[in-house]
Write a structure and sequence with these properties.
This protein starts with a strand and ends with a helix. The chain has 14 helices and 16 strands. The protein is of the alpha/beta class. The protein binds adenosine-5'-diphosphate (ADP), aspartic acid and magnesium ion. The site of adenosine-5'-diphosphate has 19 residues, from loops.
Length: 457
């Protein structure tokens, strides 16, 4: 069996949806399960819609809803499904738009948007794109079973970033999805969306369809099926040496190890959701990243270990703040670090990059963390300063510490880019540092030139 996940751009228009159906049909012999994202831009539009409703801006909310309806209707038009299938698809879009309208009206009246309601709104994108992809496959004569993701993706009730219940979802996959496969049908389902124990709609967090695909792959294996690979179909040729939007010279990485892929995703390479890797690793199922527009390109294979050592790729993540926590007595006393970290623990703020010196501890956190409260609590026993508007830049590879001159080359390449904080050596897979957010793209391009383009020349 095979899990094929198609991202937002891959289902971004009727033409693209038709292309997806063609790709799936070509793989029928491999028994594919299809997981889809919302059409590109739709999740953002749904978030805008809920915000407009909360602010009581009914006009903006109806405009957003109209655009959404039109986008899906245009896709149906382009798919040219034939009268009956077209009427069914249009009816479904209208029902979903009416449901969203009802939710938006409620939110506007209350002037309040709960995370639970936001999820009920956001889920619409994946539900509709799954309808489009199933219709496109049916048009090609492929036997399809569209399954609502809430029928199998069991999660907890943490709306907006729900945690999947892997045992429950494997049981659901056995009960609901595998019989469809056994009957010869291709299962098509939305990613990103799940259901809480009480049945309420949940979502897995932005980019979560990748995670859905990986969890489905792992669950199929758990049920005794053999999953040859989990394919993440997107709008680039695979995992590249850097985000091509920032570094146009980025080139394909044919193979990468799980640990490296996890670091890249964690440090900002949006091409894979950070949580994607874990279910795949635990089952030893390779993940392949492929380009919908160039299906013949080999893509990137992520597997337990990839050959070669040294630098593999670069990543960057903006939206980071750094806290510099110094001991007023200048020398760090025994237990000082534990005291510092207990503050972050108490506020449930995860720390990313940590650097220590004899006199201070520096950490980075997400800029949206409660910085004032952290500073207040840390100030009770330390001198604290904060810098915001930073980005984490990460050089990821295999056996970096034992590869000669990595750090030297990195810092030579950075030249006069001001480095705020450095963390090296904690793992063999990354060398991470922090720069001003506005310097990060330039830092990435310089590093890329020094680490990848020279050797190619
Ligand atoms: P999808 O909608 O298919 O899930 P995403 O937009 O989430 O697609 O992810 C693909 C994008 O990730 C690419 O268009 C690219 O700009 C970005 N990206 C960031 N880092 C990398 C990288 N190292 N390799 C490839 N793509 C990357
Ligand atoms: N549609 C969701 C998002 O944009 C999930 C996904 O595409 O993976 O975040
Ligand atoms: Mg994505």
């Amino acid at each position: 069996m095979l899990v094929m996940k198609f991202g937002g751009t891959s289902v971004g228009s009727g033409e693209r949806v038709a292309g997806v159906a063609e790709l799936v049909e070509a793989r029928l012999a491999e028994e594919p399960f299809v997981v889809v994202s919302a059409m590109g831009g739709v999740t953002d539009a749904l978030l805008d819609l809920s915000r407009a409703a909360r602010e009581g801006d009914r006009e903006a909310a109806s405009a957003a809803l109209r655009t959404l309806g039109e986008k899906h209707h245009a896709a149906v038009e382009a798919l040219d499904l034939g009268p009956a299938a077209e009427a069914a698809a249009r009816g479904e879009i209208e029902r979903e738009v009416a449901r969203l309208d009802g939710l938006a009206t409620g939110v506007a009246l209350l002037g309040e948007l709960s995370a639970r309601t936001a999820d009920a709104v956001c889920a619409a994108g994946e539900l509709l794109s799954a309808a489009l992809v199933s219709a496109a496959l049916a048009k090609r004569g492929v036997a399809v079973a569209r399954v609502d993701p809430r029928e199998w993706m069991a999660t907890d009730a943490s709306h907006g970033a729900a945690t999947p219940d892997e045992a429950a979802l494997a049981a659901n996959v056995a009960r609901r999805l595998l019989p469809e496969r056994a009957a010869g049908r291709v299962v098509v389902t939305g990613g990103f969306v799940g259901a809480a124990p009480d049945g309420a709609t949940t979502t897995l967090g932005r980019g979560g369809s990748d995670y859905s695909a990986a969890l489905l792959g792992a669950a199929l294996e758990e049920c005794g099926a053999r999953v040859a690979s989990i394919e993440i179909w997107t709008d680039v040729d695979g995992i590249l040496t850097a985000d091509p939007r920032v570094v146009p010279a980025a080139r394909i990485v044919p193979e990468v190890g799980y640990a490296e892929a996890a670091e890249l995703a964690f440090f900002g390479a949006k091409v894979l959701h950070p949580a994607t890797i874990r279910p795949a690793v635990s089952r030893g199922v390779p993940v392949r990243v492929r380009n919908t527009l160039r299906p013949d390109a080999p893509g990137t294979t992520v597997r337990s270990e990839a050959p070669g050592t040294g630098v593999r790729a670069l990543a960057m993540r903006p939206g980071v703040a750094a806290l510099f926590v110094g001991s007023p007595r200048m020398l760090l006393a025994h237990g000082y670090a534990a005291r510092v970290f207990s503050v972050f623990e108490r506020h449930a703020v995860p720390v990313d990059v940590i650097a220590t010196s004899e006199v201070s501890i520096s950490v980075t956190v997400d800029e949206r963390a409660p910085l004032e409260a952290l500073v207040r609590d840390l100030s009770a026993f330390a001198e604290v300063s904060v810098l915001t508007d930073l980005a984490v830049v990460s050089v990821v590879g295999r056996r970096l510490r034992s590869t000669p001159r990595v750090a030297a080359n990195v810092f030579a390449a950075l030249g006069e880019v001001n480095v705020v904080l450095i963390s090296q050596g904690a793992s063999e897979t990354n060398l991470t540092f922090v720069v001003g957010a506005e310097d990060a793209p330039e830092a990435l391009r310089r590093l890329h030139r020094a680490l990848f383009e020279k050797e190619a020349a």
